[in-house]
Amino acid sequence: MNINLIFLLAGLLLFVGVLVNKPSTRYGIPGLLLYLSIGLFVGNGGDYDFIFNYPAQASVYSTVAISLIIFIGGLETDFQRIKPILREGFALSTVGVLITSMLIALLGTYLLGLSWWEGLLLGSVLSATDAAAVFSILESKKLRLRERISETLEFESGTNDPVAYFLTISITSILLGEPVSGGWLGFEFLLGVLLALLVGYGIGRFTVWIINRLRLDIPGLYPLLILAVILFLIGLMPIIKGNLLLTMYVTGLTIGNRVFTNRQYTFDFYRSISWLMEISLFIILGLQVFPDQLVPHLGDALIITVFLILLARPVSVFLIYLFFRSSLEKRVFISWVGLRGATPIVFGLIPLAAGLESASFIFNSAFVIVILSVIIQGGSIGWLAKKLGIEEPPVTDEEVLSTP
């Protein structure tokens, strides 16, 4: 394709993506659906269309975009808000992912005709919830929830991607015939987590230290310095076998919870970058999907969606909350609000780019499941919150004025 046409189309698609944000916010339609639709209806080789079929390149871009989104999620997270729910949030984002993956693997093996490893790959791809999907819907419905439910969902959805990503990469390697033992996988995972925590915290502290001593004359250079650090980490972590996505979250969390020069300017800059990454990511994922390839997988995708929403997610949540004190209402709500967003589609690109036999089924099923999850679960969040009585009353003007 002509390079000028590529830039023309990129600008046009991004322009349309920004415009549809207004009706998305006004009518409570998840932006994810609109952005995916933009990509879905072009790039399929129609009479006045082009063919977009670059899974390897889309996978690389998606990994970079997800890394930036997770970094920004960490940057904007107030550690004091999530501190009381760290243990349950961590359990949901690790053990919860493993339980969900195993349950879907059983479904895939005994009902869908997949091998055990293919079923486990499907489960790994689908196991992570999506922070952007959850909070765009909570924000659009202006929900304030009791029992730190919002904080729990925020932390879980921001930190469960690294576990699902590791499982997806590892199982893809196994299916490609690479010699990998269970013990080695466990060691590699723990090593990746340890490196992510050490590097993320260390680089985050070092970045803040540098920023506060540089005294640059141009404010716009400070966010660029942080961007340089992000790109450095995206290149470094795969080399040293560290968990990239967890590194991004820890680095963002470390930087965001410290005072540094031009802090507000930097936050505003990265909010724009977050929108750019989300819009472009969903459009590219939509471009990579061919509607005619979705149709054969609709039935299986519907079965998986029902199983995921009504069994896999609730079982994992209720098992984990056996070890934590919480109300039944909180458990039910968290069980229901396990929205799938960009990450299952992004992770579905990994086996597709690797050329696995079952990759087309996994990728196309993930796309359908994400759409159904956002429509079914996302569309009922407000109703369920009211039904369970977990909404906090809206903040009054008097409360705002009396806040010190």
Automatic annotation (TrEMBL):
Q: Where are the transmembrane segments?
A: 58-77, 89-113, 119-138, 159-177, 189-208, 220-240, 246-261, 273-290, 302-324, 336-356, 362-385
Keyword Secreted belongs to the record = no
InterPro entries, A to Z: Cation/H_exchanger_TM, Na+/solute_symporter_sf
Provide the membrane topology annotation: Multi-pass membrane protein
Question: What is the name listed in the Swiss-Prot or TrEMBL entry for this protein?
Answer: Potassium/proton antiporter
Name one process (GO BP) from the record. Answer: proton transmembrane transport
Give the organism, scientific name.
Flavilitoribacter nigricans (strain ATCC 23147 / DSM 23189 / NBRC 102662 / NCIMB 1420 / SS-2)
Query: What region holds the Cation/H+ exchanger transmembrane domain?
Result: 13-387
The record's Pfam families line, in alphabetical order, gives: Na_H_Exchanger
Task: Output one GO MF annotation.
Answer: antiporter activity
UniProt keywords, alphabetically? Antiport, Cell membrane, Ion transport, Membrane, Transmembrane, Transmembrane helix, Transport
**Superkingdom of this protein's organism:** Bacteria
Please provide one cellular component term from the Gene Ontology annotations of this protein: plasma membrane
Where does this polypeptide localize? Answer: Cell membrane
Keyword Heme appears in the UniProt entry:
no
